[in-house]
């Protein structure tokens, strides 16, 4: 056990908190849902934000799934975008690439955090969104040049 660590540090979200006096505990009520550490099915999940989509609210859960799906499709679209012209100024092109890269990575991390809710529905829509986005923007089905040379301003995402 690490020095300075007591049992109260393991009780985050369980209703107990260290009151900062070195040993006393005070009970504070928490209204948090249980944090899952394994995949589960159901609409009662917290995705990205505390309390969202809420408890026993099917409409908000479906909205959360749609948002995760759209985010994954946008990540794939950004991965395949070609905005910069070959004759562009290198500094300007580099700034545009950097901005696009930052947006893509930020959205990809949001999707990752949503999947970390361990909700099976969120996981499935994230995979489906990436697959459909790749089909439309990255595969040869709609972009015949995808197998030949550079097709995007950004490097491919690596897993």
From TrEMBL:
TM spans (from-to): 61-79, 91-112, 118-137
Main location, first listed in the record: membrane
InterPro entries from the UniProt entry: Cop_transporter
GO cellular component: plasma membrane
GO molecular function: copper ion transmembrane transporter activity
Subcellular localization: Membrane
Sequence similarity: Belongs to the copper transporter (Ctr) (TC 1.A.56) family. SLC31A subfamily.
The protein's name in its UniProt record: Copper transport protein
Species annotation: Coffea arabica
């Amino acid at each position: 056990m690490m020095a300075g660590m007591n049992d109260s540090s393991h009780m985050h979200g369980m209703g107990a908190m260290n009151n900062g006096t070195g040993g006393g505990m005070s009970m504070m009520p928490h209204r948090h849902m249980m944090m899952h550490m394994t995949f589960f099915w159901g609409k009662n999940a917290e995705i990205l934000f505390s309390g969202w989509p809420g408890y026993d609210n099917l409409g908000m859960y479906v909205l959360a799934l749609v948002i995760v799906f759209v985010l994954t499709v946008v990540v794939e679209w950004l991965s395949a975008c070609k905005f910069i012209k070959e004759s562009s100024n290198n500094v300007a092109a580099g700034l545009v690439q950097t901005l696009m890269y930052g947006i893509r990575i930020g959205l990809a991390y949001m999707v990752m955090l949503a999947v970390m809710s361990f909700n099976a529905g969120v996981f499935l829509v994230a995979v489906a969104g990436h697959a459909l986005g790749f089909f439309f923007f990255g595969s040869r089905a709609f972009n015949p040049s995808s197998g030949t040379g550079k097709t995007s301003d950004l490097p491919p995402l690596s897993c």
